[in-house]
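S.,

Sequence below, as promised.
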Amino acid sequence: IPHTKKPLNITYKPTAEEVKKNLSRYKTGEEIDVANLAFGATMVRASNEHYGPAIQVISPFRPMNMFDGLESARSRKPGHSEEVVIRLAKPSQLTKVEMDFSYFVNNNPLYVSVEGFNGKEWVNLVKKTKVKAFAGNGKAFTILSPEIISELRAVTYPDGGMNRLRAYAKV
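The prediction came back faster than expected:
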C-alpha cells in the first residue's frame, strides 16, 4: 500500500499526566470541550471506519484535510445510518454540541442526531436535523437538557463525513 509523504492527520495520544495538565489550565465555571482527547475523552465505537479511524473526530487539533475525520462507506439502503459513540472526559451537563464538516464539502451527512447516555438510558439531545446546507462548514446546537451525560452518540443519516465533534460543558 503506498504511503503519503505528508501526514493526513496529527496522531495524538495524551498520557494521564498530560490530560491532567491540560485540564488544570481551566478555572471552575469555564467551558471546555469534554469530547476532546486532550481532556480525556475516548472513542467507544464507530459503526463504520471505512476511510479512517473514528478517533480523529475527538482530536484537539483543527482538521487538515478530508482524511482527518470520520467518513463512512456509502450505503444506498433506505433508512441507513452510521454512528459514533464517545465517552466524555467527565460526566457533564452539556451546553452545546458542534459538528465540523470543514473538508466534507460534498460529502457531509444529510441529517444528524445526537443522544446522550445519562447512566441509565440514551436521551435525545439533538433531534434529527438536516445539515446538508452546512457542507464545508460547521453546525452548532444549543443543549437545554438538564441531564448529566457520560457518553455521546452522534448519528449520521444516511452516512457522510464529519471532521470533528465537540461537546461543551462547564468545568
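The first helix runs from residue 16 to 24.

Coffee later?
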